[in-house]
Every structure is written in C-alpha cells, then in structure tokens.
Amino acid sequence: MGMNAQGSMAFPQVWHPQTAAEAWHLKQSFGTDSVYVSGGTLLRTQWESGVAAIPKHLIDLSAIRGLGEIRIGETGLVIGGQVSLEACRTHPIIQRHFPIVTEALRQTAAPSIRRLGTIGGNIASNIGDSLPALLGYNAHVVWYNGMEDLQITLSEWLKIAGMLHTERLLLQIQLPFQADETLEGHEVEHLRSVISKTKRFSAYHKVGRREAFTPSVVTASVSGSLSEKKEVNEIRIALGGGQMIAQRLEELERELLGKVIDVQLLRHVYNRIMQLYKPREDLFASVSYRKTTAAHLIASELWKAAHQ
Amino acid sequence: MLLNRENSGSRWRIRPDGAGKVTGGLVYLTDMTAQPMLYGLVLRSEHPHARIISIQTERAKQHKGVHAVLTHRDIPGLNAFGIAHPDQPVLCADTVLYVGDALVAVAAESMELAQEALELVEIEYEVLEILEDPEKALLADAPQLHKGGNAMHRTAFARGDVDEAFKQCAIVVEETYYTPRQMHTYMETEGGLFVPGEDGRLTVYSPTQHGFMDRMQLARILAVSLEQIRIVSSPIGGSFGGKDELNVQPYGALLAIQTGRAIKMHNSRQESVRAGLKRHPMRMAMKTGVDAAGRLLAHQVDILSDTGPYSTLGAEVLNFATEHVIGPYKYENLNVKGISVFTNNGMSGEFRGFGGNQAIFALEGQMDRLAERLGMSPWQFRKLNMRQKEDLGPFDQPIAMTEGAERVWTAVEKSRLWQEKTLLEQSAIAVSTDPWLKIGIGAAFTMHGAGLGVGIPDPAGGRLQLAADGKIEAVFGYEEFGQGLLASLEQMLIEQFGFGAADIRMIIGDTDIVPDSGSTTASRATAMMWKSLQRLKKPFTDQLLKEAGAIMGCQAEELQLREGGIGKQTNDQVLLSYADLASKAIFPISSETSFSFPTSPTERVGAHFMYTYSAVVVKVELNTLTGRVKVLQQYHAVAAGPVINPQGYLGQIEGGSSMALGFTLLEDAVMDKGHYMTRNLDTYLIPTIADQLGLVEVEPIEHLPEQDEYGPRGIGEVGSVTLAPAIAAAVRQASGKWVTKLPIEPEFLQETPFFLTGASGNDRT
Amino acid sequence: MTEHSKQAESTFALRCVINGEAQTIETTASARLLTLIRDELELTGTKRSCDIGRCGACMVLMEGEAVNSCLAMAYQCAGKSITTIEGISKGGFDPIQQAFLEEGGFQCGYCTPGMIVSVKGLLDSNPSPSEDEIAEALSGNICRCTGYGGIRRAVTRAIEGRMLAK
Known about the structure:
Oligomer: heterotrimer
Number of strands of chain A: 12
Radius of gyration of chain A: 20 Å
CATH topology of the largest domain in chain C: Ubiquitin-like (UB roll)
CATH architecture of the largest domain in chain C: Roll
Strand content of chain A: 15-25%
CATH architecture of the largest domain in chain A: 2-Layer Sandwich
Strand order of the largest sheet of chain C: 2-1-5-3-4
Largest interface: B-C, 58 and 55 residues
Number of domains of chain A: 3
Radius of gyration of chain C: 17 Å
Order of helices and strands of chain C: EEHEEEHHHHH
Number of helices of chain C: 6
Strand content of chain C: 15-25%
Helix content of chain A: 25-40%
CATH superfamily of the largest domain in chain A: CO dehydrogenase flavoprotein, C-terminal domain
Distance between the termini of chain A: 52 Å
Distance between the termini of chain C: 54 Å
Shape of chain A: globular
CATH superfamily of the largest domain in chain C: Beta-grasp domain
Number of helices of chain A: 14
Largest sheet of chain C: 5 strands, mixed
Shape of chain C: globular
Number of strands of chain C: 5
Largest sheet of chain A: 5 strands, antiparallel
Order of helices and strands of chain A: EHEHEEEHHHHHHEEHHEHEEEEHHH
C-alpha cells in the first residue's frame, strides 16, 4: 500500500539530450534508475499512485531535434513523437485526412493535459486512446534501437510491446495517405466515388465511465469502404481500452473482405469480436462488458455504413 | 415561475464573497502560512484491522528538521473524538480498525522532511481478520470491533401488523436496493494552520461546519479549557457534511502545542480519500403491499448500513434513513427496522442528504413498481397515498403543516416534461436517428426533514450590533462553505431591515467573536438566520431608532432605517448616518437572540418537525449498445417556503442534483479487503461539465400557510435526494428494466441490437 | 556524453515570465510549477487539490493556453510566459470574472480560479465557441458545488460581454 503519499517528494535529475543517440546512451547508463519523459503527465499519475517509483533520472526527450513538428513526408504525414496531443487534435491536415485520429484525441484526457502530453507518450504507454485510431490508418512508427532508426508498423510495434517497451525510443509516427489522397482536393474524391460508387466510412468510439475526461473502458475504430452492393472492399478494425494493449483484428478483417453486409455478416462480426478481442478486467468493467460493447459498436458502424 | 436570473429581477444579487473567489484573492485556510512554520503529517495504518505490537519513533525523531513525533502517549487529554460518541482514537494505541487510522503525527521543517520522518517510523502489526461485509459482521463468530459489539445502532418503528396486512394485499412488491459509498469530493482537501499564541492560547484556522463543536472536542483532547482555543473556520472550499467531524485538527493542535510553532497541514487527495468520511453504503430490503384500489396497506423495511470503524454520526444517519424510508406516504401497517454496523471499511458519516438519498431511492422504487403492477400512473398512485396537509409525519409525529406535498405534486403533473412522458408512451414522438438510443422519462417525490430532529441539541441564534465605525454587524456562528450563507444573510438584512450592502459587516466562523448558533448542517442555517432576524428585528430597530431619536431630537416613531443611515418617514433622505449614530450614541446598540430549532412534540429521537418537499422529473437517453445513460433534462419543483436568495437557491438545487447524478450514474469509492481502490480523481469520477449538459429547471413553490411562523425550510440537501429514483424510473421507461443498485451498471442495460437479431431498425424508432 | 546532455543538476534556475514579470526561481528541474507558484511566489489563487491533473484547480495559462500547474515541471516552463489568476485580475475584473459574478458561476470558489483560467484560455483563442467546444475546453475543470449550470451561464455571458466590449 505504500506510505501516505503527500504529492511527489523526490526530485529526480533531469537530462536534456539533443539527439536520439544521446538519449539512448543516457538510458543505457542509468538503466532502471531512469525513465524517458515527454510530457510526463502519465508518469505523474503513476508516481502519485505508487504504480511506479519516482526514478533518480528523467531523460527529457523534448529537446531532441526534429521530434516536435508535423510535416508532410514522401508517403504520408510525419508526426514527431514530441508533438503535443493538443497540437495533433487541432492540426488541419490530421483533421482532414485522418479524422478519426482527431476524434480520438478530442476524447483523450482534457485539453490542458493534452497540451503537456505528447503523441509519442500516448503511443509509448501502449494503452493510449489514440492507438485504435492510428491503427485504423495503418500507421508506422520510427524508433531508435541504439544504432539506427527503424520503421515498423504500429501494429507490429504493439505486438512486441510487452517485451521491450521501456528500452524502445519512439521518434516518429507516420500516417500514410490513401493512394488517391495524394492527388489534390475534393474534386478527385468526388469523381472517384461517382465512378466506383464506393462508400468510405470511418468511426472512432471511446466508451469510458463518464461523458468526458475519463479512463477508457473500450476504444474502437473501424474504417473501410463498401461497394455499391454493400460488399466490403477494404476494412480495418482496431480495439483497445483499459489496460489492454490496442490491437488490429486482422483475422476478422480478412474474413470480411468481399462479403456483403447483412444480418449474417454482422452476427459473424459480433461473434468474432467476442472471440478475438482480449480486453482486461478491472474493478470498473468486466471482460464480457468490454467485449459486448466493442462488438456492438463495430457492428453498428458497419450497419450504418450499409444502411445510412 | 421558474427560478432564474431574469425572473428574479433585482433580487438576483452578486454574492458578497464573489470578488475574492473570482480573483483568487480570497485566502482559504489551507492557503495560510506563518513564519516560522512547520509542516505536519500523519502516519496512517497500513492495515484495515490489526493489533499494534510496537511503534518505534526514535529514528524519525532523530531525522533532520524534525521537531516532534507524537504517538498516543503524547495526548494530554481524551484520546478520542466523534461528534455524537467519541470512540475514534486520535492516535491509535493498541488496535487499528481501518486504513485511515492515525498512529503517529510528525512536524518538520519541510513537507519532504516530514514525509521522510514518517518513513522512518517502524510499526509492528499483528494482522487481524477483516470485516468488510456488514452482514458478516453481525454473525456470532465475527471478531468484535468494539466492546458493545458490531451493531453500532438499531432503529425500529412499527404500527399495526404487517404480516396480517400482506395477506390482505392485492399486490405485494419485494425488492432489495443497494447504494454506493459516495465521496464528498470537496475540492479543498482538509487542512489548515495551527498557531500557538504567546498568551498560551491556540488558534486553529481549519474548515469545519461547527466551530464550537471543534473547540469542545479539541479542548477535551488537549485537556485545556474551552477559552484556551480559538477556532477560525471559514471560508471553506466545500464540505457537504464531510468536514463537520474533526479531521486534521487534533494533529495540528497537538503538534502546535508540543513544538510551540505554527503548524501547517494540508491533506493530499489520497490521504483525504483514505481518512475521510463517505456516504453510508446501505442495503435496503423492502416489501410493500397495496389493495386492489392501490391503497398502501403494509410496508416493511430492513435497512443495513455500513458505518465503518467508528461512530461519528452513523446512528443519526440511520435514524434519518429510518424516517425517510417511510417518507411522504400513509400506510395502515408499518414495520421498519434498521441497523448500522461497524466494519473495517472506510469511515462513513455525515453527507448531504444524511441517509435520505439512500432511503428515497429505495422507497420511490417501491412506489413505481407498485403503480406499474396496478396499471396506474405512477404519479396518480403517489397522489392516492400521499400525506395530506393535516397528516402527521412519518413517525406519526406532529409536523409543521404546509401544502408542499400537494403543490410539488401538481407542479410535476402540469410540467411539460411529465406530459412528454405520456407522448413517449404513446410513441407519438420520434426518438432518434440512431435506433439504439432510447428515451425515458421518470419522476420521484420527496419529503426531506430539516434540522437535527428530536433529542439532539439544536441551538440557534445570532447577534446584531452597531460597530464603533458605524457598520451594522451581523454576527452568527454559522459557516460559509460555498452554499451562499453570507449572500443570504446580506440579502435578508437588506430586504428585511432596509440596510444597504455597504452598511453591513458580516462576521462568522470565529469562536472568539460569534455566539454558538449550532452546526451549519441539516439544511438549517438559512432558516435559523431568518428566524433570528425575525426575533431581532424589533429590538434592534427600536434601539437604533431610539438612540437616533435622542440625537436628532425627535420621536423614534417618526424615524426609519434606510440605506446609509436613518431618516424620517416623511421623506427619503438620510438624516443621520450609521457612523454618526455610532459615534454619538450613549449606549452600545446590540441585540442577541438564542433559541432552538423547532422540534416536534414527540419522544421519537430524530423525528423532524419541518420538511421540504420536492418532486423531480428527469429525461434520460440510454445507449443500448453501451448501456450508458445520459441525463438530458431535469425539472425540480421545490416547496421550501420563501426564496431568500434566488441565485443561491438555484445553485443549491442544481449543485445538489449534480451530486445526485454522480451518485446514480458514476460514483463509488470502491473498497477491496478494507483498502480503497479509488484513491484519487483519476479513478473516483465525479460529473464533469460534459455530464451536465442537460437543461435543469427549478421551480420554487414559496407558499406557506398564513399562520406559519417558521419561514424558509432548508434547501441545502433536498436537491441531492430525489434525482436518483427519478432516473431509475426513466431508465425503466427506456429499457424496461428496474434498477436496484447504484451507481447503475451499464452492463445491466445493454441490449442485443436489432441488426443482430434480424429485426428492422425502423420498428424500433 | 555531449555538452548538451550534461545539464542535469540538482538545482535549476527557472527563468520565466509570471504575470508579466520576469522571474528567476532557484529550484530543481523537476519541481512542480504549482509548488513554485504557491510556495515560492505566494500566489495562492492557484489551488492544490488532486496533484495529478484530474481536477483543474491548479490551472494556469502557459503561453496563453491552459495547463495543469501540478503536472508542469520547472524545466518545462523555462522561457515561458505564465499567467495565474492573479495575472488575469491585474487590471480589475476581466469580463469573464464579471460574468462569473453576475451569473453565480461559483459557490465554494475553490475551483473558480482554475475554471476562469480555462475559460480565458478558451475565449482568447476561440471567441465564440459552441456548447460542445465549451464542454471540451472545461472538461478538465471539476466543480463539485454548482453542477456547472452557473458556470455555463457565466461562459455564455462572458462571450456576449467580450463581443460587446469590442
């Protein structure tokens, strides 16, 4: 149970590396006496609750060059890990091309916390509200392994999260533009939809314990496109919530491709989410509630895509 | 007429304490510092139930910057506190009964050093079996937490023969209701500054709802006379009942006396959660029967209340719940029993609504179930069984008569929202574009007692005086914890006497100056100030005018009080300012009154005399995909006599209902094996602004019988007691399910959506 | 290790601007802004309540935007302009404060400075926010007394008041 915490009493030393390599070396030399810090908002709650001890050294990542900006890269949008959640929340390009990321961030913590907290920190926590939305756009992450920058899909990054996460130094997030989005403007979008009669859809849901500023119980994203005959052309489904590491449901996605959205298929979606989604139980919500909720939300979005 | 700024005209006033609050200039007692000053901290038990084998403080005492490390051996007087029955140790000697139990208090030169010192204290425990379930605590083989056993208090009230009556009933409804361990969550956690004076006296700057009670309790602990202690207790950053009992004061006081230095204490939120009071979790089993016409024949209730480790006001809360599970209805036969049980859970105690919140949720649930079984409108059913104006109170005691019940009932019947319910029933209005969203409307009804009730000293009173500088001083022993007490007092002085705001100086919350006006609790302070001013009006006005007449050379009868001073009745000029009157008056001008809160002529302990009536209609939206409920709209009709301060009245009902919304949908201080699992506001969630987007309409019903001499009834609590059952009724309409447990669990309300069953979405709209 | 990364020291001189005045505060790099404001500068209008950013009582403006001073560490404030409730009150009542007074957007007042700071941050960047935008901007400020009714009315009034003042 610990002592009667009266706020945080210890004052760690703070290091301000200018490069990823410096940060990495600091982490190597201080080991478990140190922790990387971006905004520090999640760390503060962990220290206060006694979940984590206050370390002797904080390695501040905010001074590392190039991590504080959002820019358009060759294949997509590149978001530096040190960009604040609020800067992402209000960024016009994110809003336009990756709207469910905007929606996820709107529902993340409160604006004042989002101004200190960073997108990199949200991802590195493995349980951030942004993750299902980023997974929904097939985001990639760039991280530093002590020698070089490596790029992998966010989905892969999360799969190995349990093994390595304190050692990994997250640098950037890349959100690939849709193939046709690299073309300019609404006109093309319009043309495309007229020609192919496909219907794009995307949605993000966070179910928490109150209407705002709440820890998540379930986070869910679904995006894709339907043919005129309501066949699934493309689909991504991602789920998270609570202390669970967010995941894509790739198996289910494959099963849905080419299928027509009808009652049978929606039942299949429901049943498969109940099987594939592995949320964690806590004091506030059971596993079965989380599964049912996630299954309802995803199925309802598919129903809406087909019927509205 | 709805209560709002527009309808209130010039009676809508800016609060006298507003400027300091919006600028941050107001110094709360936890903002105070002194030089030099030490920081006080308390070491609390690691275990919810354990025997203390040893307490070693040597290492802590030797730590740098540490000036005092106190244990039970260092308490000069009574090592216990508790408003009603002092059984909570200040510093535990041999046993700990909950995780908030205090063992050691330290004072050091910084918060960090005090924290380090606490970590150097070594305590050896023998861990004992934990009682976390009050039902199990009553079993014969349960460990006994107190000498008198685990049954802290029992209540009973019976009339007729319920067993026989149930046989006659056409319909009987049986249900068990559960309510959560709600936390007050005042934004300012407990704390203050404790300053030993050169004259040997101690000044305590620490929030409380009854300064004189703190003074008495602290004098008993410190073994000093009452005069040795001064309590300064306002302003307060929220209390809701939670700061009525002592919290940090014994430790601050002991450390200040021991070290001779000023001591600052300010609980972290975690410590506040751990040590502080919560609302009593209750289990209420009810069996209620009606005849075929819908008349209540029998009502049987069994209340089980988890009071935690020590008494504080647990017995009084149970008395209140016992009265309010009977409530505003007439029954031929009654059998109500209650028991409040000691456990090793957190401390339960006083909290806005005082047991009414739990009782009314359950009672109104019974009424809705019975009406539905009868096929009657729930509102007509209530009317049929409601106490009438001349009827006795719940304990068959005489009460101050009003038409409140009838009038709030009628207000709801006529309300737009209630009429919308009928339309919903007839599916006459479209619901939503999302067919999984469902709407429901429900209502509930309350009579809520004010004052402490029969058998508990309930003093009241105050003083008016003309100060040397010409200010009219209103001196009361009440506290301002946000409810708007000062605003109400100022408004009464202006409206009843004719003073201007600038003429007035209000003095509260300082035991050296104010008379003991009793506790600022139980929705009583405004009523008692109103009554005090009624009693003071003639003598004080007479004194002012008589002195003024002597100075001005005219008859007192020719004069009257005005803003700024005294004038003649024949014109509206001020002829003698209050400052001039003060400087020229030969005799001091002062009037004091003391009396007791009116009580019912009955022997029944806890029975009330004055009641506030309220009825609430609420509209909710249920998302059947997630099971989550949103409150869309509320309508409150409140019969509490005259509106003293419109802004304050509205704020009390809105604020109380927000607390009730949390109680119904969100809040529970979850405990596991005697430990709190919700230790800060990241897990203990109270409503945010986004949870409160719905419109809240408040309709005050001011009517009182002509001969009524009691004036305003209380409104401090009533806003918080009626919403829960109204939401439950609305959820019933939306979902077809009866809620029995709060907060409502979303999982319980989830439904398999139509698109999975093959039903058409359009069928559902 | 390079020059740059050797900046960790047990003491840290925080240079920043608080309420328009340049300040140098000798502290530690990880000290919390809340503590510095209340204990070092004795600006007690900024309140302590939860210590983890979950209540908003300690809200201050950093470069004009509301942040929780209990979460912000000293090194994160270096070179920044910070405004506390005292700074907002400097030239008399701000129209937002006036609106809170007139509408009764407070009771115990303990959350009020933080609430007003958040409203100030909102309206300075978005002078006519929608209901949803107001709710989002104030969702990190917990008020236990009012049920937010008075606060919402005060914000509406403040928006009108600021429009008129222009």
